[in-house]
């Protein structure tokens, strides 16, 4: 940024803080003019960006420009909206704190364009994925939709936003945009039914009429002529040269699809838009009694179809109102004026609520769809694109709300700017000097204070019974806050002020200046009421959008709805809370002229905006202390060449280096302060003098460096070339001669050896035939290489020469072993474990037990019992022991051989037999003497335990449906592979107290386990396999 200071006479300074005469408004505007004439539309006030609308395309928004500002320090490059965007993004990533960018300015100053550029910057520079690209597209496509439904042509701007918009962009931990949310404020609904001369209604009406397909217009009952609709002719401006409604219609339709609107939703949305136009064309006639009746039945038919309501009910609601008196509903006819107002109120309500539904629908589309942990906070960057301070010839309720909003934003702006300055001074150990500034809290309180504020007075007048009017509101204002220093009326003003004020006006002295407000329409716009019977009709609509916009709960709620001013005050308070919770950045937009001409700079208009935006106040706050501050490293790196002690490099501490440098430059103590990590320079002239000295120093340094480098490089280059040429020539000549001689010798020897080898090819290996035999061997190996088997099952092998038959067989064996090894290596751990268990099972049972072959194709399970089938008390009893396998078994008592269901659990140290929640028997693997099983197909086995162990009651007789799997698991866990005895005929086991039991095994037709008459346990099992 400092590099541009040398051209300051031509292009001004890039930061207003560096203005020498920072208190002069004329100097401020002159700096803006210089930069504007050079197409430099961006200037800083510290970290605040001031943007002047150029009214032409500038080549400063390309992808290359975005990359230039990406990840670069805020002050290292020239001012740009991309610099503000990137600074907020990097602060969000590094500090993990939410950011917001506040964009403000007059209508036509470029606020909407600035917000678009910020969104485009994030869309291009942030990390991307398929899901992120979808969100980026929806974020970008939300703009044309909101512009179509919320923007209109005004006298000051062809694409003026007629609502305030706050958008939160949500980022994931990688810094990619993954979602968003939009809040809208104070849509100018009155524009639906009335426009000033030279202005238009909302864009969507003209886009639909100009761009809609013939079939669509026919279905909606519309003509391709805006002059046919009462709501579109009042401004007498159906077409605008800078707007192409037809192409904009295509953009909007595409955007609706990208955002995720279904065809049915788009159809119902367009039905509502068309119905508003038809409502405007409803005409009334007056009866002799003064009651109104509808003269245009055609419009009612269209409305009934488009809104999905009963035509007769709608017609009745547009000419009558429902009055509830003493619990009884009465219908009262409307006169012409009342009926027209009811029609317009319905139009505004339908459009306003549909716009809110549209914003909510976009929010659903932009919402982050994935789970967010409570620990992991998702950062946001907010964009506030909101109307600037407005002063017209005729200022009404809308301007009052807009200017109240700007008062709140100015209050927040000054507070946060002062706080930011104070925090930086304290962090650097610089004494903070209190700054005197105008605190506009007194104006905010005048508007919003409870019971005594203007909004409270307005609400009270709207709600009180009796004949309340705009004039009675003005009178109450005079009686309640008439003595306030920032408010006056025609009645309270002096003679001079009365000449420029109407009797129906009151004047507020805002931070930006005086504004006269005409109270006509204040009560109606604040009430924003819709007759109950019109709400009832809308609640009965078949249109799904309208059923969401008009909730039936409204009809049951006897509580009076909040007024428009109170709703706006509440939403503004929430907005302030949001902004206070984030780190703010500011973009102040300025309109250079009212004619929207490129290159034209209107001093009066710009002075007006500089005042209303509070830019001079901001500059005064920023310049109250030091005009310039930079980190030691940055300052020393730039200016070290101005001091012999710091040039070419400084080896000590950075603070000492900067101190040495400024002393050499002759800085006076009052001109600078050294903080903990930064230098603070009080006056711009001190910095300018330093920058001029550096510019002079650059020439001498450049000349000296150039001459020294040129001489050194040329001498070095010449010497290197000469010595290299001599060496290369000699070496290359020798190489060429050697190569020629060597090639001749090699060729002669090769031919001689090949012929001699062919002659002696049938003899034993000798010097005469070894070359030939080696060639034959090489040829075979090359052939073998090209024809190797491709799989373990491929048994093909090339035929070998006689001398290589033995070697060929060895190679074949090695290659097959290698292929088998490779196959084994590719087996995954689970399958390998399964095969290892199968190998153990094969070693134990193959050709020994009848039902082994049936177990081979079946996979062994990790466990036969899940966690829910094992009692938690059992698991608690096992403690830290890991359970490796569990299977349901049947245990046969030692006395009587009664069968009892049990669970067999295998841990790393022991086998445990469990009955429900009890550990019945624990057998340590070390104490397990052996395992006996029959050779038949039964599942009975015996675990033999030592008779000396008093804890054991004798051997355990168990039966498992998965005998092969169970015993394999036991053998592996207990390391008893060689301790499994497979018996034929009978098994003897210890019953305890020295007694023995016998199990007899016999072949039969079916499995049967029972106690025999001889007292033995008899097991009959079918013979499945003959061994």
TrEMBL record:
The keyword Methyltransferase does not apply. Residues 12-695 form the Myosin motor domain. It is found in: Cell projection, Stereocilium membrane; Cytoplasm, Cell cortex. Keywords: Acetylation, Actin-binding, ATP-binding, Cell membrane, Cell projection, Cytoplasm, Membrane, Methylation, Motor protein, Myosin, Nucleotide-binding, Repeat. Residues 849-1023 form the TH1 domain. Pfam families: IQ, Myosin_head, Myosin_TH1. It comes from the Eukaryota. One of its GO terms (biological process) is endocytosis. GO terms for molecular function: actin filament binding; ATP binding; microfilament motor activity. GO terms for cellular component: cell cortex; microvillus; myosin complex; stereocilium membrane. Residues 572-594 are annotated as: Actin-binding. SMART domains: IQ, MYSc. ATP binds at residues 105-112. InterPro entries: IQ_motif_EF-hand-BS, Kinesin_motor_dom_sf, Myosin_head_motor_dom-like, Myosin_TH1, MYSc_Myo1, P-loop_NTPase. Belongs to the TRAFAC class myosin-kinesin ATPase superfamily. Myosin family. This is Myosin Ic, paralog b. It comes from Oncorhynchus kisutch.
């Amino acid at each position: 940024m400092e590099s541009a200071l040398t051209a300051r006479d031509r292009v001004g300074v890039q930061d207003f803080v560096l203005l020498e005469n920072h208190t002069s408004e004329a100097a401020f505007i002159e700096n803006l003019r210089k930069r504007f004439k050079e197409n430099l539309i961006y200037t800083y006030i510290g970290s605040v960006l001031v943007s002047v609308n150029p009214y032409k395309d500038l080549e400063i928004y390309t992808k290359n420009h975005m990359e230039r500002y990406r990840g670069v320090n805020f002050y290292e490059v020239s001012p740009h909206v991309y610099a503000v965007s990137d600074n907020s993004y990097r602060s969000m990533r590094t500090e993990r704190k939410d950011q917001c960018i506040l964009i403000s300015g007059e209508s036509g100053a470029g606020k909407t364009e600035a917000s678009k550029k910020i969104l485009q910057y994030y869309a291009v520079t942030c990390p991307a994925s398929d899901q992120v690209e979808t969100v980026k597209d929806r974020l970008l496509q939300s703009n044309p939709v909101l512009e179509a439904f919320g923007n209109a042509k005004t006298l000051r701007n062809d694409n003026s936003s007629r609502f305030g918009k706050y958008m939160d962009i949500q980022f994931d931990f990688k810094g990619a945009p993954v979602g968003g949310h939009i809040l809208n404020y104070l849509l100018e609904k009155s524009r639906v039914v009335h426009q000033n001369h030279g202005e238009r209604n909302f864009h969507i009406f003209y886009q639909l009429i100009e761009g809609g397909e013939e079939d669509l217009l026919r279905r909606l009952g519309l003509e391709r002529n805006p002059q046919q609709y009462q709501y579109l002719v009042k401004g007498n401006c159906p077409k605008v040269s800078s707007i192409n409604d037809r192409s904009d219609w295509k953009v909007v339709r595409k955007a609706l699809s990208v955002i995720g609107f279904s065809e049915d939703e788009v159809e119902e949305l367009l039905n509502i838009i068309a119905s508003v136009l038809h409502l405007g064309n409803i005409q009334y006639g007056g009866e002799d009694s003064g009651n109104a009746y509808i003269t245009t039945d055609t419009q009612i038919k269209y409305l009934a179809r488009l809104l999905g309501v009963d035509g007769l009910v709608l017609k009745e609601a547009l000419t009558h109102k429902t009055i509830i008196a003493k619990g009884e509903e009465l219908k009262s006819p409307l006169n012409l004026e009342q009926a027209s107002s009811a029609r317009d109120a319905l139009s505004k309500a339908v459009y306003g609520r549909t716009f809110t539904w549209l914003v909510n629908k976009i929010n659903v589309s932009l919402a982050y769809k994935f789970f967010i942990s409570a620990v992991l906070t998702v950062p946001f960057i907010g964009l506030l694109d909101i109307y600037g301070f407005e002063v017209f010839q005729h200022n009404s309720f809308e301007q009052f709300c807009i200017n109240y909003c700007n008062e709140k934003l100015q209050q927040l702006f000054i507070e946060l700017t002062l706080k930011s300055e104070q925090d930086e001074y304290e962090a650097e150990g610089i004494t903070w000097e209190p700054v005197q500034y105008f605190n506009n809290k007194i104006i905010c309180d005048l508007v919003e204070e409870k019971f005594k504020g203007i909004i409270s007075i307005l609400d009270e007048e709207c709600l009180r019974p009796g004949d309340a009017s705009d004039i009675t509101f003005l009178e109450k204002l005079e009686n309640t806050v008439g003595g306030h220093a920032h408010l006056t009326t025609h009645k309270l003003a002096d003679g001079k002020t009365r000449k420029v004020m109407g009797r129906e006006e009151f004047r507020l002295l805002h931070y930006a200046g005086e504004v006269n407000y005409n109270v006509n329409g204040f009560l109606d716009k604040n009430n924003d009421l819709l007759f109950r019977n019109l709400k009832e009709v809308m609640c009965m609509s078949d249109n799904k959008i309208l059923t969401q916009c008009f909730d039936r709960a409204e009809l049951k709620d006897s509580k009076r709805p909040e007024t428009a001013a109170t709703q706006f005050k509440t939403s503004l308070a929430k907005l302030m809370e949001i902004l206070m919770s984030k780190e703010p950045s500011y973009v102040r937009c300025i309109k250079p002229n009212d004619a929207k001409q490129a290159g034209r700079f209107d001093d009066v208009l710009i002075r007006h905006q500089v005042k209303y935006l509070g830019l001079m106040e901001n500059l005064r706050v920023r310049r109250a202390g030091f005009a310039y501050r930079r980190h030691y490293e940055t300052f020393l790196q730039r200016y070290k060449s101005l001091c012999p002690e710091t040039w070419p490099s400084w080896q000590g501490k950075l603070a000492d280096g900067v101190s040495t440098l400024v002393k050499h430059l002759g800085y006076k103590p009052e001109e600078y302060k050294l903080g903990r990590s930064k230098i603070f320079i009080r006056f711009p002239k001190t910095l300018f003098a330093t920058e001029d000295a550096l510019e002079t120093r650059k020439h001498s340094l450049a000349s000296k460096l150039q001459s020294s480098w040129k001489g050194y490089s040329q001498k070095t280059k010449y010497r290197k070339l000469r010595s290299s040429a001599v060496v290369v020539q000699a070496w290359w000549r020798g190489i060429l001669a050697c190569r020629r001689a060597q090639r001749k010798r090699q060729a002669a020897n090769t031919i001689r050896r090949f012929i001699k080898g062919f002659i002696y090819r049938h003899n034993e290996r000798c010097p005469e035939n070894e070359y030939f035999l080696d060639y034959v061997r090489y040829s075979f190996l090359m052939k073998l290489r090209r024809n190797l088997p491709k799989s373990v099952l491929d048994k093909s092998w090339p035929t070998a020469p006689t001398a290589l038959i033995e070697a060929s067989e060895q190679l074949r064996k090695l290659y097959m072993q290698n292929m088998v090894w490779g196959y084994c290596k590719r087996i995954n751990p689970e399958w390998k474990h399964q095969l290892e268990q199968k190998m153990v099972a094969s070693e134990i049972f193959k050709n020994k037990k009848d039902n082994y072959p049936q177990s081979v194709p079946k996979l062994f399970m990790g466990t036969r019992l899940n966690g829910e089938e094992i009692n938690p008390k059992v698991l608690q009893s096992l403690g830290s022991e890991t359970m490796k396998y569990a299977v349901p078994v049947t245990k046969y008592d030692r006395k009587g051989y009664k069968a009892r269901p049990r669970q067999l659990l295998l841990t790393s140290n022991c086998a445990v037999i469990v009955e429900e929640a009890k550990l019945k028997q624990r057998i340590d693997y070390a104490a397990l003497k052996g395992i006996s099983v029959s050779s038949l197909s039964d599942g009975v086995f015996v675990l033999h335990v030592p008779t000396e162990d008093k804890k054991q009651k004798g051997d355990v007789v168990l039966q498992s449906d998965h005998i092969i799997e169970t015993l394999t698991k036991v053998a592996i866990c207990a390391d008893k592979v060689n301790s499994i005895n497979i018996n034929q005929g009978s098994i003897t086991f210890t019953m305890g107290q020295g007694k023995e039991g016998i199990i007899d095994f016999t072949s039969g037709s079916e499995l049967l386990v029972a106690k025999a008459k001889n007292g033995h346990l008899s097991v009959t099992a079918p013979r499945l396999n003959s061994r």
